[in-house]
Every structure is written in C-alpha cells, then in structure tokens.
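User: We ran a pulldown and think these components assemble together. Before we commit to crystallization trials, I'd like a predicted model of the whole complex to look at. Sequences follow.
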Amino acid sequence: MPQISQLSEFYASQIFWMLVIFGAVFFLIGRGMAPKVIETIDNRSKRIADDLNAAEAAHRDADAQEKTWRVQSAAQRGQAQALIAEAKAKGAKATEAQLAVAGKGIESRLAEAEGRIAAARESALAEIETVAADAASDIAARVAGLTVDAEAARAAVKGVLHG
Amino acid sequence: MAAEAKVDPMHQFMIEPMFGTDGWAIAGYHIPFTNSALWMLISAIVLYAFMMGGMRRELVPGRWQMAVESMTGFIDNMLEANIGKEGRGYLPYVFSLFMFILFANLLGLLPLGLAGVHPFTFTSHFSATGVLAILSFAIVLIVGFWKHGLHFFSLFIPHGTPAPMIPLIFIIELVSFLVRPFSLGLRLFVAMMAGHVLLEVLSSFVIGGTNAGVFFFGLVAIPSFALMVAISALEILVAGIQAYVFALLTSLYINDAEHLH
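Assistant: Here's a predicted model for the assembly, 424 residues in total across the polymer chains.
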C-alpha cells in the first residue's frame, strides 16, 4: 500500500503541495470568484423580484384605472340617456304644438270650404229657382197663353221645390 | 498470446517524484514535485478554467455560466440550510473544498490510460485528504473558541444530561469530536482507493481471463468487463457523493462551532 509505505518519504511533499495548491484555490477561486458568482445570482433574483413587484403594481394600477373608467363611463352613459330623454320630450312637445297649429289651420280651412260649399249650393239653388220659374212662366205662356207675373212664378216654384 | 498479465492494483497509487528530488526542501523536509502534486495543480487549473466560464456575470446566463452558478448556488444553499445566515462567510472555504475534491475525484477517473497517461487520484492518499480534514477541523476549533471561548466545551454535554452522567458523556462526546478529522479524511481516502482498486482488480480479471482461453474469456472476462462498466458509473457517483459528504460534514461541524447545538 503505497499510501503507507511511501508515507515517510513523501508526507512533507504531499502536505506542502496540498497547502500551496489548495491555498491558491481558496484565495483565487473561493475568495475571488465564488462571491462574485453569488453576487450575480443575488442581483438576478433581486431584479426578478423587483420586476415582479413592478408588474404587480402596474396590474393593480390598471385595475384601479379600469374601475374609475367604469364609473366614469356609467356616469356618462347616464348623462347621455338623460340628454336623449330630454331631447325626445322636447321633440314630442314641439311636434304636438305643430300638430295643434296645423290642426287649427286645417279646421279653419275646412270651415271656410264648408261655408263656400253652402254658399255655392245656395246660389245654385237660387239659380235653379229662377230657371224653373222662367221655364214655368214660359210653359204657362205657351200652353195656356197666360202671362204669369215673374214674382208669382217664382213663388209657385218655391212652393213646389220646398214642398 | 499476450505477455503474462501482472496487474498490481496498488501500483496506481505510487507517488513518483517528477523534479526537485535533490534540492527542494523546507527546514530539512524534502518537498519534491510529484505526480500527486501535478494532479493537484491540474485539478486547480481545470477548476479555474471552469470558474472562468461563470465570470461573464450576465443577467441571462448562458449554459456554462448556469453550470457555475448552480454549483455555487448548491453550496450556498447547503450552507444556508446547515449554518444559517452566517453560512455565507464560509462559502469561500466550503466551495473551494467541494469543487477541488470533486474535480480531483473526477479527473482521477478519466480513462487517460488509453493515451498512456496515468491519471493520479491524490484524494486516494490520506496524506492529502488528511490536510483538508485537519484544515476543516482547525476552522471548527478556531471558530468555536473564538466565538464562545471556554464555553465551547459545553458542546460535549448535550442538553438534559443528568448530572451524574456528565463526566462520562463529556468524555464520549470529546472522543467522538476528536475522531472527526480522522473520519473526515479517511472516508474520502478509503472510498476513492476502494473504487480504484476494485476497477484495477476487475481489469486484471479481464486480462487474465482473456489470456486463459475462450472458456475463461466467456466465464470471467466478459462478466468482469460488464461489471467494470457498471462500477465506473458508480465511481462517478461516488466521486460526487464523497466531495458532497466532505463539504456537508464540514458545514455541519462549522454549525456546531457557530451555534453549539
């Protein structure tokens, strides 16, 4: 077993070189490099945690903004509906007034037209009376040779026509 | 017929001095640069190269940086879980320990023998693992006495020990405490050596069985070879587990020193 049989010959060399080389490893790698690697890891996890927090804050912010937006939009919608209702009511009132005016005009024109029709009828009737009286006096003159007074003829026709 | 197969499973652990055999000495102790020291150096250099890949420090890591960060984060989490917030302070030592042992174990398993190079596993020498174990133990002692003074000895008396039992328990706990550096160093050395010896013995079966004719080739060599493949996979696992166990026990012992139970 060389570990034992060579011990007396090489133990000093083994211990010396182990201390020298492991010492170099400790100072160069253990103290020089490993803490930097750990620092890099820590920085990264800190950065990730910070970013996550920022994202969460942004999320909460967005939620709050959405809420206020919702409230605002509901209020605006209510306003808009009130405006529409008002406009509708106004429109309906205006239409009603116009309709009333127009109806009044139509009524007066109807009354006027009816008056005209009644007058026309009256005059037509009067003319028929005259024509009938003339015709009656003519007929009486031809058939009986009577000269009938125009007034008498008219009275006679009136009596027949109006029964 | 190949030459007579003579496989010495222990030969792989032979330390061979490379240079500095005659002159190099400190206070009378010879410190030649051996193949063991060479593989320590190679492990350190490969580890350094590995870590350089993690030094780009980008926000979105690449594969290599991810690998370095997961190793570092693994040790950091282990220290955090075992020691608590003071664990960060021990990261440089425990991380160096874990990675150095891990790279040494894995590099020692490389099949470089195919290229004629002998990969020497210095973690299969207790003269090497012992240094690491004593370092860990020394840190535990220094931290313990630094933070708690003589109160550190209360570590050897568990809570709720009946008064008449205290002297006995104290001695038992003291012995178990003093055994720690030995168990720490020997565990790694034994695990690495056993695996390497097993692979070597099995390979001698493969060579011997093949040379002994077709019957033994089928009976011994083929099953041995299949077993070698499986054990090689197991050894890679053991390389990682032993490095982890060394680092884990070190952090547990440091926790004792930090918090006294």
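Chain A has one domain: 2-162. That may be worth checking against your pulldown data before setting up trials.

User: Thanks, that helps.
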